[in-house]
Amino acid sequence: MFHFSEGLKELKVFVDLAFISAGEGDLDIDKVNCFHAVTSAFAPLIFDLKQDSKFDEVMNKCNLVWKELQNDKNLTNKLHDTNNQLDWFKAVRQSHGSVEVTSLKQAEMIVAQGIYKIGFPKDKTSKTQLVRLFICLFKC
């Protein structure tokens, strides 16, 4: 379906962009919710297995998925519904350029690690400079 080379991080960014594309449409929001539920439930098999994983590791990941299937009896239906909506998800992926994806990743990094200082400058400035944003990505 899709290749998420950066794993769960990239999947999360895609889900966020899909929610943006869905807007306020209930059907499109349901599509994204189903996709998110399915990919989250199957994530241990999709993202956590390595090519050289041993049998025990594979079984451990399968057990995690089985637990998800027990917790959500509609998961197989959601998987089927998501499969039926692949064209919509492909269109979403194509409609969001790499700049948007990169910007969203950077914003998430800033939110996770940054410090925001929002306030009014002490000196008289123009109306366009009334709010100042200070971002520190490391220990300040």
Features:
140 residues; mainly alpha; two-stranded antiparallel ribbon; extended
Oligomeric state as shown: single chain
User: How far is the first residue's CA from the last residue's CA?
Assistant: 42 Å
Task: Name the structural class.
Answer: mainly alpha
What proportion of the residues form beta strands (DSSP E)?
5-15%
> What proportion of the residues is helical, as a percent range?
55-70%
Q: Which term fits the overall shape?
A: extended
Low-confidence stretches: none
InterPro entries: RNF213 (IPR031248)
GO molecular function, one term: ubiquitin-protein transferase activity
Question: How would you portray this structure in words?
Answer:
This protein has seven helices and two strands; from the N terminus they run αααααααββ. With 140 residues, it is mostly helical. It has a domain of 89 residues. A two-stranded antiparallel ribbon has the order 1-2. Helix 2 crosses helix 5. The longest helix is centred in the middle third of the chain and has 17 residues. The relative contact order is 0.12. The mean pLDDT is 78.
